[in-house]
Amino acid sequence: MYGVFGGYTRWAVVFLIIFVLFFLFVPAAAGAAAY
């Protein structure tokens, strides 16, 4: 149970990091494109 939950938590953290990087990169790319 702990192994499954640990794996799920690890994937959740990885997904969260990717989501944050995506949200930080999209506005910068949109601003560059707008320019």
Automatic annotation (TrEMBL):
Keywords: Membrane, Transmembrane, Transmembrane helix. This is Competence protein ComGC. It comes from the Bacteria. The chain crosses the membrane at residues 12-34. It comes from Alicyclobacillus tolerans.
